[in-house]
Design a protein that fits this description.
This protein is of the alpha/beta class. It contains 12 helices and 9 strands. A 7-stranded mixed sheet has the order 4-5-3-7-2-8-9, sandwiched between helices. The chain has a two-stranded antiparallel sheet with strand order 1-6. It starts with 5 loop residues before the first strand and ends in a 22-residue tail after the last helix. The structure holds adenosine-5'-triphosphate and magnesium ion. The site of magnesium ion has 5 residues, from α1.
């Protein structure tokens, strides 16, 4: 299924990044995208992880993927050709294919190796090929060339964080990497948001870590926290974002709250303190 989405100059590109594995990057990319789409925002996820979990998680199994982000990175196809629709209205995806697992090595010898994704996005914009409000990039659990491409192409970075021992150290490392990329490759980039994921506030250590993260990183930490919720972990095996799988579970409600807060920061929804808001957005008020 080919998507008819368009990229224009207004699309904001957010890299969902954390070098630590299993902290909820893919879950956040897919479910924040679904929640933003439910709020009327045209959203594209780029699955930049060779594991391909975001692609599988929206119901696109490996056998259904012909072109993907690998083909875009090596300059073999345009964005629109590799973009696919998902079952969620307004939510498209550029899938990951098997070839992506060799890309870290292949990219090393290529010209503009850190800029391949940024260049491809710029070309898509220039060709008026596609148009989205938000592009979320699901990064692999490393700070290699694929993640560098995401950070070089992004307007901002959002880090999911699991509240456990050493989480703060990992995040400080990530912050330094982001600052380095901002200095050398992409001055637009900054760590815009931290989302606490899979939290169980009954566990004392999780609560202490979450409080530490808030004390250390302040306002960039989203008030919305994603609870550990079995429905969230079941949804990918059904090929659906949790919103489509079980709209009323605590995970869906949390991702809708996150989307609402995200859009408040974007000034697209009124903030709780009564600030601006450019246009009303449907489902966000359901969270
Ligand atoms: N809120 C949640 N409640 C319960 N399970 C969750 C939640 N969020 C994520 N999970 C589960 O935790 C596991 C890791 O999540 P996910 O794949 O999103 O992490 P990741 O950071 O993308 O991992 P990787 O670094 O391997 O790409 C998955 O099995 C996922 O289903
Ligand atoms: Mg992942």
């Amino acid at each position: 299924m080919q998507a008819a989405g368009k990229l224009d100059g207004a699309a904001r590109v957010i890299a969902i990044v954390n070098q630590k594995g299993g902290v909820g990057k893919t879950t956040t990319a897919v479910n924040l995208a679904a929640a933003l789409a439910a709020c009327g925002q045209r959203t594209l996820v780029i699955d930049l992880d060779p594991q391909g979990n975001a692609s599988t998680g929206v119901g696109i199994p490996a056998r259904a993927r012909t072109l993907g982000i690998y083909d875009i990175l090596i300059g073999e196809c345009a964005f629109a050709e590799a973009t696919m629709r998902t079952d969620t209205p307004l939510f498209d995806i550029v899938p990951s294919t098997m070839d992506l697992s060799g890309a870290e090595i292949e990219l090393v010898g290529m010209p503009r190796r850190e800029w391949r994704l940024a260049d491809a996005l710029a070309a898509a914009r220039a060709a008026d090929e596609a148009c989205y409000d938000y592009i979320l990039i699901d990064c692999p659990p490393s700070l290699g060339l694929l993640t560098l491409n995401a950070l070089t192409a992004a307007d901002g970075a959002l880090a999911p964080l699991q509240a456990e021992f050493l989480a703060l150290e990992g995040l400080s490392h990530l912050k330094r990497t982001i600052d380095m990329v901002a200095e050398r490759l992409n001055p637009r980039l900054k760590l815009e948001g931290i989302v606490i994921t899979m939290i169980d506030r009954r566990v004392r250590l999780a609560e202490a870590v979450a409080d530490d993260v808030r004390a250390h990183f302040g306002a960039i930490v989203y008030r919305a926290e994603i609870p550990r919720n079995v429905r969230v972990s079941e949804a990918p095996s059904h090929g659906k974002p949790v919103l489509l799988y079980d709209l009323n579970c605590s995970g869906s409600r949390a991702y809708l709250r996150l989307a609402r807060e995200f859009l408040q920061r974007e000034n697209l929804l009124p903030s709780p303190s009564g600030g601006g808001g450019r246009r009303p957005v449907g489902l966000a008020s359901a969270a």
